[in-house]
Predict the structure.
Amino acid sequence: MRGKRLFIAVFLLPPLLLYGVFVVSPYAQAFPIAGTNWSGLSPTYEFVGADNLKRLLGDEYFWTALRHNGLLLVLLPVVTILLGLFFASMISVGGRADRVGVHGVRGAGVYRVVYFFPQVLSVAIVGVLWKQMYASNTGMINGFLRGIGLDGLAVAWLGDPRFAFWCVLAVLVWMNVGFYVVLFGAAMQSIPRDLYEAALLDGANRLTTLVRITVPLVWDTIQVAWVYLAIVAIDGFAVVQIITDGGPSSSSDVVGLRLYKTAFADGQFGYASAIGVAMFFLTLTVAVMFLRVTRRERVEL
Amino acid sequence: MTAVLSSPPAEAVAEAPPARSRALPVVSHLFLIGWALLTTLPLLWAVLSSFKSDNEILTSPWSLPSEMRWANWARAWNEAHIGRYFLNSAIVVTGALTLTMLFGAMAAYVLARYRFRGSRIVYFAFVGGMMFPVFLALVPLFFVVRDLGLLGTLPGLTLVYAAYSLPFTVFFLTSFFRTLPTAVAEAAMVDGCGHFGLFFRVMLPMARPGLVSVAVFNFLFQWNQYVLPLVLMQGAGAERRWVLAQGLTALAVNEGYRGDFSGLFAGMTIAMLPVITAYLIFHRQFQSGLAAGQLR
């Protein structure tokens, strides 16, 4: 018995120590720091709890950033999931339909491998790459537009407040779609082929089969996708910071970047922590809302 | 956008039935190839640009390089310090991955296989870490690391990477260790195997498939980390210990000002190639590892 206790202690204490120091304690400290006016330079600070909250509610930069996160929260999952479902169903049932049954397309494996490329690249590489893609003189996009004679469409993508946010959204979609093609594709593998054949015989077209058969049967996976994309949308920090740094004139700012700048550029650690707490409650709200919205009967085969 | 994309296959089907079986695959391939080009062309463009001269990059973004200028790569590796950042990333990720897998497996094994007071609390403490946005911890974490004297150091970053990888690792491996048969463990105990021997000689080898999946996921998480090094590798002299992600973005800013675009593209290509190569070799493990991580 003593051997067992010793064993449990030896195996559990080192991981718990590491986890406690670097994860639990920062999370726990974030809440009290959020109520102070700590600047980090002086060891002294005062408790100003309500002031930080008041300041947060009246901070137009914060609201602008929050609005962008809200837009991402709606658009990123919708666009990414629709594209993911579309390409995944093209790959797994988009091939011939003959007497033997419904087929996937040829080269399905190649598509799955290629679509996944952006997912394995680090977000820093993706950001730097797309910053260059959008560059007004040296970028590939404007180079292409000028090459086909559409010089008028070659604009300063990242320098224009009208376009910067959408450029960021496009990059986020670009880097995420491939993963969901693979994820949905795996889910669709488990749907029996004869369901599609029966539906097609009954005169349903491919769009109907996608909406009526595929989507209900992979609904669980779509929910998972939504959760993960919501996490990406609430974050968004790295891509925004690298590509636009929130600009021009905070037209593509997000809450994470606000927090980072407030803390590590302005040295307002108390207020930055308050933004972090706001982000935490935002995440919590989204999680609760999500659970309510997606509560829907599972379709069993 | 989606309406435009999803209507053509439906129309193709709506035509006369005999035509549809031939038309649909063609339409499918058109869309699929379209997206394949969209994912690969930017990467190819970066690789090609890494061989161009700055003048070629400035005047014709779409042309091929007139010759293979490997000097760009040498300049990025040595003068822009991509080589050093690469080494730093490798050191940190090797250490962190080892620590994550060892500590994660140890904790998960005990939580999955032993009953003791407080085990549920410990389990939820670990798993709960997955639900909090890392931004919440950013400010206090900076000071925790600074007060330990680890700010801007490789060991500091290693420990932090390992700590933030633990929630998912413990969560995944706990459920994995539960699925392993108890008969083998009992047989080993009867044969006189101790708790430690049982773990290292029986359980770890049996858990290999699960360990590989988590390791791949953790490798990508740690190798691609951006916000943690940005916050923690600050201070005097820290730029010598920057990791690849951080060094590359700094390069993007600096070379942009200096106009050394070819060096920037070379640096990007150098950073990109190893992961893409590893992915092409182990793409199954990558996809299943990431799927396991995402489906938490």
